[in-house]
Amino acid sequence: MKFHFSIEYNTQWGEDLRLIIGEETYALSTLDGQRWETDIELNAKSIGTTLTYQYALYRDGQLVWTEWDVAPHAVLLNHTGTNKTVKDDDRTFTINDYWRPIPEDLPLFSSAFADGVASHGTPAPEDLPTFNQTLQLRIVEPRLLQHQRLGICGNTPLLGNWERAVPLTLIGLQEWGISLNTDDIFHPIEYKYVITDADGNITAWEEGPNRRISSLALRKGETWIKTDSSVRLRLPNWKCAGVVIPVFSLRTAKSYGIGDFGDLQEMIRWAAHVGMHAVQILPINDTITTHTWQDSYPYNAISIYAFNPIYCDISALPRLENKLQMETFLMQQQELNVLPQIDFEKVLRLKTDYLRQAYEQEGKQVLASADFKAYFDANKEWLVPYAAFCYLRDTYGTADFSTWEKHSTYDRAAISRLCSPRGKNYAGIALHYYIQYQLHLQLTAVRNTARQEGVIIKGDIPIGISRTSVEAWTEPQYFHFNSQAGAPPDDFSRNGQNWGFPTYNWKAMLADGCSWWVRRFRKMAEYFDAYRIDHVLGFFRIWDIPQHSVHGLLGHFSPSLPMSQSEIESYGFQFNRELMTQPYINDNVLFSIFGYRAELVKTLYLVADTTKSDQSFNAFGGPNTFYRLRPEYDTQRKVQAAFAHKTDEEALTLRDGLYTLISNVLFVIDRDNPQMYHPRISAQLDDAFRSLTESQQRAFNHLYDDYYYHRHNQFWYDEAMKKLPHLTQSTRMLICAEDLGMVPACVEWVMNQLRILSLEIQTMPKAYGVQFGHLSDNPYRSVATISTHDMPTMRQWWDEDPTRTQQFYNTALHIDGEAPHPLPGWVAEEIVNRHLYSPSMLCLLSLQDWLAIDERVRNKDIDAERINIPADPRHYWRWRMHVSIEQLQQNDTLNDHIRTMIQRSGR
């Protein structure tokens, strides 16, 4: 077979284009630096039925980039038409291409859109026939909705004689095509692309002049594949509305005191009923480490693959054959299901007991089935270690594998022997195979329901993993266990957040192409069509907290560019390592933090430090004595241990004061190079900064602003671009990111380049100096929301700060007069409507905020709706809907109201 490839691409001096087919690369040539061409000959038998290829740009002999590899060019080679008188080896293909970059409208190529809410079925390139002389027209058009079709109309009978549309065939990812027998075409050919309804009626014509092919001089056996530029039509941007709710918060009549995957199906049906096209949930991975309420934290996963058994829909399992036991379970189910909040420990015990009995009743038959064996073969790489981990966790009574008597260090061969079906432990291990298989079946059913209903399920990928997790046990090379991941101080937490997760060893991850992340994302794509990257800033830099810290204030960004002493002093700052990297403690500081308890603190926890002077500081008045912490209290972890069993208010006040004292430094010493330093985050709020002279404060602020807001932009951009493309191009899920917090400018650069949807919250604007964002300024590639699980709900926020609420009422809502309290339904509806009308592609609101519009339906207890308080690391995640999904489905007034709001907004 002979192929002539031609593509237009403007190149600069020293650049050239090459064609990549499999492992082979072919050079293209050009006369003008714009049109590149090559001729190659391939053996028909060696190619197969489809030729797949890409173009690549080289500069000075080095690869610069390739085309978007999610949708490579493809040519079907099998002869499917009439007049098959030409042998395959004698066939010729002339191919005119366009370069395929990552599309600007990448979300419309995602599985969420192309395979879900706007699916046009499975591409069928085999439906395009070939003839002795074939003209094949192709075009990429991703904007069509489910009821729309792409057609062509032109000046020949084969193209409808300008009277009717000829339908095009979906031949690839948002790529459409038609094959024409040139024996039946007169020249010149003129045509336009059109949009039709499902019945073939033309609803829109392409704008601009007719497309034109002046002449066709094809040889016998030649196929000319002509790829046209994009359809010239101004179509409205696709937008949709959706609801955000954790699975654990769902409630139906059959729930066991917590939401489950069966309840999620019902929530999807309700969302579709009211005109929504998306349901977003929180992470659903297994978090069971202690079997206590502390396992309710959904971001502390013990496996990046396994689902939490607590989400199993018990009603989807076989009823227990023992009728008395079954009745007992149903009685307990009813008791737990009427509770206003989740009793996590009771629910977990009940569901675990039922799953064990169901396994004893039918486990052998299920595990012997062909379907289970297929599931096991596809998932055994993670499933076997996970099941062994759970068995050992329960055997030793702890998930801390470092304390296990056996298997504390993962050994693949040893675990394989432990999990042998012939071993004495197999029944206890296979229980976890059974549970995960049931969860897989249930979540697959949820995904199928969502596809049928035209609803996108948006999952959540946590930034971290538990220190006592399967992956920490089996793949420790990917993690740094001598540090803790967290977040710097923000509106949610003055002391920063310490999540306790190990930080990633990106050097090891990048060495194998981020395969750990790619496997994780591809597994998630089996169940979800969209996902939220939790704390996307962590892929630029993570807030790295030393192991000895409880709070996040003594952390620093990693990777980062720490400062040398000479660089610090270049800002006019007089650096003193001894004073500024150790807790700054004198009498005035002690009185400021502890008040009348200062003398007690000095006696119990401090010793005088006569080696220090305060020449660089402006003391509050008179000479000062300096102190240092006693060795047994000189880190926050030591203080935490000392106060571990004290719960009275006086003790907790002292403990928190000591935490503050320990973090009262101006600089943090770099862990890798002790001669380099990081300005301590939010140091301006503490006594060490306030003790500086005014000139020193100005110099510190100068270096601080440069360090945190300017110094790292290009550096962090480069870091993110090493990592995120591996993730974003590993699947076709719609990519959204939580980009809140201390956001450097480079985050927007990367998210635009990779077409990642941002998160836009009006009360947390990203523009400097802006109090409330302008919803009309939201980018199209974004998710608009009112509140997240880490924030107060809309109604809580409204009452938190009356002064701020009044400003919002007058300046953001543009309503005169005094803001009413509590938030009335009509104001809530106004806020929701403004978000629905925003340019954002997705408007995803929490269920609490949706229900706020109806004063008859919403929860009377505003504070009961809060999901998480980030400042509290021991928060109990237990919020549940106060009404059942069945009640929502039957509330025609509310449903009609929401449906009308969504429809009027064009979503």
How would you characterize this protein structure?
- This protein has 907 residues and is of the alpha/beta class.
- Helices cover 32% and strands 19% of the residues.
- The chain has 27 helices and 35 strands.
- Strands 4-5-1-9-18-10-14-13 form an eight-stranded mixed β-sheet, with no helix packed on it.
- A hairpin with a 2-residue loop joins strand 13 and strand 14.
- Helix 3 packs parallel to helix 8.
- It is globular, with a radius of gyration of 32 Å.
- The chain starts with a strand and ends with a helix.
- The relative contact order is 0.09.
Report the end-to-end length measured between terminal Cα atoms.
Answer: 49 Å
Query: What portion of residues belong to β-strands?
Result: 15-25%
> How are strands sequenced across the largest beta sheet?
4-5-1-9-18-10-14-13
Low-confidence runs: 618-622
Give the strand tally.
35
Shape annotation: globular
Main sheet properties: 8 strands, mixed
Number of helical elements: 27
Mean pLDDT: 94
* Gyration radius, in Å: 32 Å
Q: Helix/strand-derived class?
A: alpha/beta
In percent, how helical is the residue content?
25-40%
Based on the model shown, name its key terms.
907 residues; alpha/beta; 8-stranded mixed sheet; 8-stranded parallel sheet; 27 helices
